[in-house]
Design goal:
Layout lengths: L9 E7 L3 E7 L4 E5 L6 H9 L5 E6 L2 E2 L12 E5 L10 H10 L5 H14 L15 H13 L5 E5 L7 H16 L4 E5 L3 H7 L2 E6 L2 E6 L1 H6 L4 H7 L2 E5 L2 E5 L5 E3 L8 E14 L2 E7 L3 E6 L1 H6 L7 E7 L4 E4 L4
Parallel strand pairs: 3-8, 3-9, 6-7, 7-8
Antiparallel strand pairs: 1-2, 1-4, 4-5, 9-10, 11-12, 12-18, 13-17, 14-15, 14-17, 15-16
Helix pairs in contact: 2-3, 2-4, 3-4
The protein binds adenosine-5'-triphosphate (ATP).
The site of adenosine-5'-triphosphate has 9 residues, from helix 1.
GO molecular function: ATP binding; ATP hydrolysis activity
Keywords: ATP-binding, Molybdenum, Nucleotide-binding, Transport
InterPro entries: AAA+_ATPase, ABC_SmlMolc_Importer, ABC_transporter-like_ATP-bd, ABC_transporter-like_CS, Mo/tungstate-bd_C_term_dom, Mop_domain, P-loop_NTPase, Transp-assoc_OB_typ1
C-alpha cells in the first residue's frame, strides 16, 4: 500500500483498544521524551511500535513500513531497553551485546569486536566476561544500552532506563547516554518520569494522557506552557485551565498571607495548607484551594505565618505575573 507519510524518521499511528490512540512523528536523529502519569500508555506506545502489543494503525521507520505488510518484531531494526529486564541471564555481557548483531547476520568475530567496542564506550569493557547477575544495576543498564545501540537501529526505545538506579549512577548514565544519542542518527523514544531527562536529553517531548497525545513540542515550550496537570507538577508551575485557555504562574510569584489580600490587579484563592517541603532555598507550600496550588516562600515567612498542614491561608498573584495562552489546535 502506498504510504505518503513515510519519512526517514518515524511516522506512526497506533491504536490499542481502550489503552492507546496516538500519532507520533519524528525526524531521524530526534530524541523524543515520552512523558505522562502512570497508566497514560507510555509503555504501551513503545510496545505497540515494536510490534510487541497488537495494534491497529501504521508504523513506518527509516523509510520502511513495519505494518503493511507486517514485519516480524525480530526483523524490525529496533533496539530497546526496559527498566527491569533486558539482558539474557545466561550470556556474558559481551555475548549479550553481540547477540543482536549476530542475529542480523554479522560474523562472530565482527560481532564480538563491535560488541567489545560498545562496552568500552560505556566504560564497562573490563566486565565483558561477566554474567548479568555479576553486574551492578548501573553496569547492567550500561550493557543493556550498549546492546540496544550496537546494531545501529532505526528506532531506539528506552523505557525508564534510569529507574531503580541510585541518583549518582543515574546522573552519570544520563550524561553518557546524552553523548551517544547526540551521534545516533535513528529516532530515539525515551519514556521518563523525570523532567530533567525530558529537558536535557530530548529534542521534543510527547505528553500522553489517558492514552492520547495531549501535547507535543520542544521541551522548553512544553515546560513553559504545560497543558496537563502532570507536566505542570513535573516542572513546578501552577497551571489553571478554562476550556482551551490556560493561565500559568510560577510558585515564586505567589504571595501567601493570613488575611485576604487587597488590590484589584491580583488573582486570589483561599484554602488550607496540605503540605510543606524544602525547595532550594525556599519552602514549597501546597495549598488546597478550589484547586491545588503551590507557592514558594522564604523559610522566615513560613515561620512567621505559622505555615503547617491545615492552616488556612490566602494565596494571591499579580495579574502581570500570569501568562495566558490558548492551546494550539491539534
Ligand atoms: N497487558 C495489558 N493488558 C491490558 N491492559 C493493560 C496491559 N498493560 C497495561 N494495560 C493498561 O493500559 C494502560 C496503559 O498502561 P501503560 O503501562 O502503557 O502505561 P504507562 O504510561 O507506561 O504507565 P507507567 O508509568 O505506570 O509505567 C493502563 O490503563 C494499563 O492498566
Amino acid at each position: 500500500m502506498a504510504d505518503d507519510t513515510m519519512t526517514a524518521g518515524l511516522s506512526a499511528t497506533v491504536r490499542v483498544d481502550g489503552r492507546l490512540d496516538a500519532t507520533i512523528t519524528a525526524d531521524a536523529g530526534d530524541v523524543v521524551a515520552v512523558i505522562g502519569p502512570n497508566g497514560a500508555g507510555k509503555t504501551t506506545l513503545l510496545r505497540a511500535l515494536a510490534g510487541l502489543v497488537p495494534a491497529a494503525g501504521q508504523v513506518s521507520v527509516g523509510g520502511r513500513s513495519w505494518t503493511s505488510p507486517p514485519v516480524l518484531v525480530r526483523d524490525r531494526n529496533l533496539g530497546f531497553v526496559f527498566q527491569d529486564q533486558s539482558l539474557f541471564p545466561h550470556l556474558s555481557a559481551l555475548d549479550n551485546v553481540a547477540f543482536g548483531l549476530r542475529s542480523r547476520g554479522t560474523s562472530r568475530a565482527e560481532a564480538d569486536a563491535t560488541a567489545r567496542a560498545w562496552l568500552e564506550r560505556f566504560g564497562v569493557g573490563d566486565l565483558a566476561a561477566r554474567r548479568p547477575r555479576e553486574l551492578s544495576g548501573g553496569q547492567a543498564q550500561r550493557v543493556a544500552i550498549a546492546r540496544a545501540l550496537a546494531p545501529a537501529p532505526d528506532l531506539l526505545l528506552l523505557d525508564e532506563p534510569f529507574a531503580g538506579l541510585d541518583v549518582g549512577v543515574a546522573t552519570a548514565l544520563r550524561i553518557e547516554l546524552a553523548r551517544h544519542l547526540a551521534s545516533y542518527d535513528g529516532v530515539a523514544l525515551l519514556v521518563t518520569h523525570d523532567a530533567i531527562d525530558a529537558l536535557t536529553l530530548a529534542d521534543r517531548v510527547l505528553v500522553l494522557d489517558e492514552g492520547v497525545v495531549a501535547q507535543t513540542g520542544a521541551p522548553r515550550d512544553v515546560a513553559a506552557r504545560p497543558v496537563t496537570d502532570h507536566v505542570a507538577r513535573l516542572v513546578g508551575l501552577n497551571v489553571i485551565r478554562e476550556g482551551e485557555t490556560f493561565r500559568s504562574f510560577s510558585p515564586s510569584a505567589v504571595t501567601v498571607s493570613l488575611g485576604q489580600p487587597e488590590g484589584s490587579a491580583r488573582h486570589r484563592w483561599h484554602g488550607a495548607v496540605l503540605g510543606l517541603a524544602p525547595h532550594g532555598d525556599a519552602v514549597r507550600v501546597l495549598v488546597a484551594a478550589d484547586r491545588e496550588l503551590i507557592a514558594d516562600v522564604t523559610p522566615a515567612a513560613a515561620a512567621e505565618l505559622g505555615l503547617a498542614p491545615g492552616r488556612e491561608v490566602w494565596l494571591s498573584v499579580k495579574q502581570t505575573a500570569v501568562e495566558t495562552w490558548s492551546r494550539d489546535p491539534a
